[in-house]
């Protein structure tokens, strides 16, 4: 069942999204080689709790941390640890959620430790293309469009680059629960699937691999890695269907909250070189 949100509820979700955005900005600002993923987790938790919000992931089905930190061949759901020290050139996916007034925000970024220059052109392209696919998908979040329009837009970017498109994990509805209906696949056919309407709030989250599409879960019960050990990237935003077009509730300061009217963020494309 898809739970529609009123405009007041979407406004509450925007407050949750803003806390998630501030946590991401703090983590990105602090990220340095030599830090541990647990250092990043503690920082994000301080920002969220300091804003009067609650981390979404901590305690979710027993997940132990505020962030999911997924390093290199890890796709999603990596567990922060004092033992995981970051090296220059590492590719780190950071997924963060927060609850405000009972509503969740959910957003992920993939960053190169030490900055984009620390990565090869091939890796920069993977990260930038996955981010591009996210924004191509977000641009489809209009009333009257269909879920297949989102999936097709994301898939087109992966196919153009020949990346492995992860299918075992997908985007989702979001609201008072972190994961609600519908599932939002990262592949699809334009014009197919359920029709979006006003009040839907979705998390769109493409995951692209440099190699094959297949994944497997590690024995910790959480961490998902690429089956072939290739690098993976993951970007995510929470977005609402509004009469004015897609409202990106988790947009950070350097991104448009209204990509339909303000245009797509162009700066990241330069990172692809
Ligand atoms: Mg997430
Ligand atoms: Mg999500």
Notable characteristics:
273 residues; alpha+beta; Creatine Amidinohydrolase; five-stranded antiparallel β-sheet; four-stranded antiparallel β-sheet; 5 helices; 15 strands; binds magnesium ion
Describe the structure.
The mean pLDDT is 96. Strand 14 and strand 15 form a beta hairpin. This protein is of the alpha+beta class and 273 residues long. 27% of the residues lie in helices and 24% in strands. The longest helix is centred in the N-terminal third of the chain and has 24 residues. The chain has a single domain, classed as Creatinase/methionine aminopeptidase superfamily (Creatine Amidinohydrolase). The chain has a five-stranded antiparallel beta sheet. Strands 1, 2, 4 and 5 form a four-stranded antiparallel beta sheet that branches. The protein has a three-stranded antiparallel beta sheet with strand order 3-12-11, with no helix packed on it. The protein has five helices and 15 strands. The structure holds magnesium ion (2 copies). The site of one magnesium ion has 5 residues, from loops.
Briefly summarize what is shown:
By secondary structure, this protein is an alpha+beta fold.
**Shape field:** globular
Largest sheet, in brief, is: 5 strands, antiparallel
Q: N-to-C terminal Cα separation, in Å?
A: 43 Å
Radius of gyration: 17 Å
What structural class do the secondary elements suggest? alpha+beta
**Total strand count, please?**
15
Tell me the CATH superfamily: Creatinase/methionine aminopeptidase superfamily
Unreliable runs: none
Percent helix, as a range, is 25-40%
Question: What is the CATH fold-level name?
Answer: Creatine Amidinohydrolase
> How much of the polypeptide forms β-strand, as a percent range?
15-25%
